[in-house]
Amino acid sequence: MRNITVDNVIIGTGTAGLAAYRAIKANHQQALIIEGGSYGTTCARVGCMPSKLLIAAAEAMHSHARLAPFGLQSSHEPTVNGKAVMERVKSERDRFVGFVLEGVDAIPEKDKIKGFARFVSPNQLMIDEHTKVTFNKAVIATGSSPVILPFLKELGDRVIVNDDVFSWNDLPQSVAIFGPGVIGLELGQALHRLKVNVHLFGRDNLIGPISDPVVRQEALSIIGQEMNLYADTKEVSVKRIGNQVEIRFVTPDGQTKSVVVDYVIAATGRSPNVKSLNLQATHIELDQRGIPVFDRNTMQCGESHIFIAGDANHDVPLLHEAADEGKIAGTNAASFPKIHQGLRRSPMGVVFSDPQIATIGSRYSDLNPQQVVIGQVNFNNQGRSRVMLKNKGMLRIYADRESGLLLGAEMIGPDAEHLAHLLAWVHQLGLTVSQILELPFYHPVIEEGLRTALRDAQEKIESNLMQQVAA
Fold first, then answer.
1. Sign of CA dihedral 404, 406, 412, 414
2. Sign of the alpha-carbon dihedral angle for 39, 44, 47, 50
3. Which of 7, 120, 240, 391 has the maximal Cβ count within 10 Å?
């Protein structure tokens, strides 16, 4: 049994863990980074990068279908070589992982150790059964894992999670995806456009991260017109039949239907990897899910010497947020017991569907309808969008009824990733709708649609002020 004493420990070498390590070392303190699985981030291995590679292939394939409305013709119909598609996805994925591994390789050997960690006291960890580590401060950055709903587990190797998709050597003939959230929607549409027969199942008409009922209905309509989307299924049952799966379900109008697919992909969320840490030994407060209660501005668990960052805290499971959280956690671990609030940027999320979906700032469900005005634009007749035949979608922005301060937005539409950045920037700067309207808008650009929504909101703000004056 080895015994190690160190000032700081970081459990996990994903985006948050590596950011915490760099922050601690920048403060000239000892740090030991512990990893039980493979080095490399969720984003690079099974998340944002390989999924975008699959989406890029799907977009290239789908571009052929967009020729005819422009009056263009192709001499042949393109075909999908599933093996070649997956070969490129995995090859480029491995390249991105390699960049991460280069960073890990650069960490001195004395600063890292392999094995699964568990707490045995507030200041001690056991690594597997080979090493006991005594520490002063700890950063938990253990990431998350996909969740498979209990009723799907009986399907054996016919049920997989999104991580497994990027191990395929070829594309299947058909899949069912449970969960039309960010992961399910991106994978479902990409596979559909790569000629896989896709059935996407949901509940209560939820889709992506959208909470605004108007934007949600627009999204359901757009996606449902392209692919098999069952957004509100009831009485779902699954049955394995050889190497296939039969899914039976009831539609909102009471019809019983069934489909048969090669695989079921569980895209029903991810769970923080904290259960095996024996957190009870730390004496920190845990919520009802067993996750440490923490301050999202400092990443500190209660008043303790333990910090938590990234997907492990189940707050905002996005790479750029994990990087920020890791830096905050590492900086505060280094300065403990002095604690400082770190920079938390305006919330922003993007779904790389087509059209793209995005949210910034406060979502509709976060707001009191009596205190906000909503400005909107439908992209159906927006100039540049119509020119490019990308005129689908809806943008709704939320502003304070009294001050005009921009509070947030939800959207589905063309180039939503870029509109989201613009809105997130002005939101973080604390601008009002009228101040944003003073900024330049070129013509003709999709951003003019944003200006239309802002003008709609400003008219309602001014109308509200006039009513107050009249009263």
1. positive
2. negative
3. 391
Pairing of the two strands 372-378 and 394-400: antiparallel
How many other CB atoms are found less than 10 A from the CB of residue 77? 7
Q: Which whole number is the average pLDDT over 46-66?
A: 87
Task: Average the pLDDT over 283-299 and give the result.
Answer: 96
Of 37, 33, 196, 181, the closest CA to residue 107 belongs to 33
Cα distances from 411 to residues 218, 390, 408, 440, in angstroms, run 9, 14, 10, 21
* Alpha-carbon span 319 to 327, nearest angstrom: 12
pLDDT higher than threshold 80 for residue 42? no
The number of beta carbons lying within 10 Å of the beta carbon of residue 59 is 15
- Give the angle 7-9-11 at the CA atoms, nearest 5°: 175
- The pLDDT of residue 471 is 73
Q: At a CB cut-off of 8 Å and minimum separation 6, what does 306 contact?
A: 122, 137, 138, 139, 140, 282, 284, 292, 300
| Per-residue pLDDT tens over the stretch 414-441 | 999 999 999 999 999 999 999 999 999 9
**pLDDT at 44 > cutoff 70:** no
Percentage of the chain beyond pLDDT 70 is 98
Domains of the chain, each with CATH number or no CATH: 2-145+271-335 (3.50.50.60), 150-268 (3.50.50.60), 348-470 (3.30.390.30)
Least Cα distance to 245 among 266, 267, 223, 269 occurs for 266
As beta bridge partners, residue 355 has none
Give the model's pLDDT for residue 39.
73
8-state DSSP, 300: B
Helix (H, G, I), strand (E, B) or coil at 308: strand
Look at phi and psi of residue 384 and say left if phi exceeds 0, alpha if psi is from -120 to 50, else beta: alpha
Q: pTM for the full model?
A: 0.94
- Counting beta carbons within 10 angstroms of the beta carbon of residue 335, is it exposed (0 to 12), middle (13 to 18) or buried (19 or more)? middle
Q: Report how far apart, in Å, the C-alpha atoms of 268 and of each of 94, 161, 375 are.
A: 26, 9, 32
Whether residue 46 has pLDDT greater than 70: no
Nearest to 181 by CA among 18, 285, 51: 51
